[in-house]
């Protein structure tokens, strides 16, 4: 079975999506050849009455425990650094951060909730300039050295900080970041627009990010909010103000034309455009049921004809 270039986003597993529905999605994903499961220790503190995260990881852990053998078929991606320490009301000022003790405690909590001895990738969820960068880099490298983590990634970090961290790791002979996780989609925000509804100043995939990944083939690029929370296929989903500019209308027109010519949904064209581009992007897609998952799986399996990809690229 061909590998599926799609990460299953599990942000709302255990909160907005109950355990039974979450398990159905996980089962379908694995049965279809999916391997990448993305979560975080803070998911989803804002949606839970407790004000703390961990619900997503617990649901995944319970699912793994009930499915003997499935652990060997999946790659688990989790994040540390953004879990609140005193409840949701104080976030983001009270986030756990990226000090060595916080990283160690964060991954230990994740492993406990997931019921596993290691994860394939661990991300620095959001940057923490209060912690010395060398301390952060060394703490993550020690997780790899111990076999607790397979690879390291940086989410919502500016590229200059990623490059500096990778240089520190390289000079010391430590494992460094080999993946980036940021926000992108087919339509693009205005330059200098803040990331909607988030505290991630550097959360966008910029042209500089694409160039950096292009020049460093060892780095994978993962994209969250690739489908803009359903905007492409649902009239009731508003478009964030950051996308309010003339180029958006032209890109949406091209997207609708290509989807119509291929007889697929606009979501599927967006996913095919991301995964088949250069550099290729791994979209993280959260779904509320197996129907949405099947649509996403068909999208990443779709190969866009070169002429249609060129039309999409040149629009806007």
From TrEMBL:
Residues 6-314 form the NADP-dependent oxidoreductase domain. SUPFAM superfamilies: NAD(P)-linked oxidoreductase (SSF51430). InterPro entries: AKR_Detox_Biosynth, NAD(P)_OxRdtase_dom_sf, NADP_OxRdtase_dom. This is Oxidoreductase. It comes from Microbispora corallina.
